[in-house]
Amino acid sequence: MDFEPRGRQFWIAAGLAALSSLALLIVTQAWLETGPVFYRIYRWESALAFGSLIAGGTLWLIVSIARRYRRPRRTIAGIGRGTALGLLFFAATSMGIARPQPVSWDAVPGSPDFLPEREQAAFAMADQSHRPILFYFHADWCASCEDFERYVLGNPEIAADLEP
Fold first, then answer.
1. Which of the four pLDDT bands, split at 50, 70 and 90, describes residue 158?
2. Helices 44-66 and 72-93, packing angle to 10 deg
């Protein structure tokens, strides 16, 4: 039994190919952002090779779907148009228009003025010495908090710098 989709089935297959390509891009980005697990991929040459491998797999998927149709040129042109529109949408959404602003040390206008006495004393001391303030929040269930307490606050050099 040959697989020869027509009509609606073509659009289902084309949508599947587009969604698979998008999923591959998202998984690749998440994979590269995992940190020390893939520390060698952070070099741009390796990232380019890895991205080319993923793009080649996506192209192979699209071509293998396109071969099963009776009008391959028309199918490939449709897939090409869909891919171009997808890339255009991806480029338009990733231009950085909604990029958050950098952190500022300036006071927020209209911020509340109800700090407890302990924090007011810390702010006054920091204002006199022109040094920033470190607010340390801790939770017993937080593994990162335990590491911070053990390795950062436990380091005598850092602890000396944090003293008023």
1. confident
2. 140
Helix 44-66 to helix 8-32 angle (10° resolution) is 170
Q: What is the pTM of this model?
A: 0.27
Number of Cβ within a 10 Å radius of residue 14: 19
pLDDT at residue 81, rounded to an integer: 84
d(CA 52, CA 119): 53
Q: What is the mean pLDDT of the chain?
A: 73
Q: Kindly give, in sequence order, each residue whose CB lies less than 8 Å from that of residue 133, ignoring residues fewer than 6 positions away.
A: 122, 123, 126
Helices (H), the chain: 8-32, 44-66, 72-93, 117-129, 143-147, 156-162
